[in-house]
TrEMBL record:
It is found in: Plastid. The keyword Transit peptide applies. It holds the Pfam family PAP_fibrillin. Residues 236-256 have a biased composition (Low complexity). It comes from Sesamum alatum. This is Plastid-lipid-associated protein 6, chloroplastic. The keyword Transit peptide applies. The lineage of its organism: Eukaryota, Viridiplantae, Streptophyta, Embryophyta, Tracheophyta. Residues 16-37, 236-260 are annotated as: Disordered.
Amino acid sequence: MASLLHLASLPLPHHQSLPSLSPSSSSNTPSTSASATADFSRIQKLYPSFHRGRNCSLKKGLICRSSSSEVTFIEPPESKASKDDLIGSLKLKLLSAVSGLNRGLAASEDDLRKAEAAAKELESAGGLVDLSGDLDKLQGRWKLIYSSAFSSRTLGGSRPGPPTGRLLPITLGQVFQRIDIFSKDFDNIVELELGAPWPLPPIEVTATLAHKFELIGSSKIKITFEKTTVKTTGNLSQLPPLDLPRLPDSLRPPSDTRSGEFEVTYLDSDTRITRGDRDELRVFVIS
């Protein structure tokens, strides 16, 4: 019964204390056995849920396993429900931080810091992402709800792109990523509204930037650009799609903008966080 000393660390009701156990309490003499039996009876009165010979629950989340000769304690397993609650709370915090920022186009420096901090908390709670065995989690159509690079006020983010505002009458609509893990297709789909001279209505188009992707590591993805297709929508939806011609190799800029890499830093069934090769933070939700 020497292991009963472990109970000394537990809070006792009404400021009571456990019976003291002498060093000789581990012997098997009749007097010691009778004393140990009395001690056990007193412990049962203090902790009615404590019983000899079966599992039982004690205060402060400790789990007791006892037999006629010993009492041991183990820490309870981590509660899955509590982790799910934490993840849910951090996801809500991130979504709240990026809401109302027009996918990052309206983000201030303070907004960028808040979004970055909320994303790091969720990434830390979710742990490392390993796509080598869970590539199917990427499958689907994802909606972009935030990009830190859009705060640069260009539609290309950190890469070259048309500016927004008064210089060009371009209004950014929804942005999606369509990923097919079987064909390795990785399409960035951008909805745009192009201004037209009065009294003509704006022209609505959807631009699809088609890529192929490959996994290069446990969580890093490389995409290679193939072509851009533009399709009118709205009043001009009857027009056929148009594939934009690619520039000859001799006319392309020195930097290869046809490919890029990014890392998936958080992923579950409905939320994805990525960090690009140009320090771009992106947040997606399943669409």
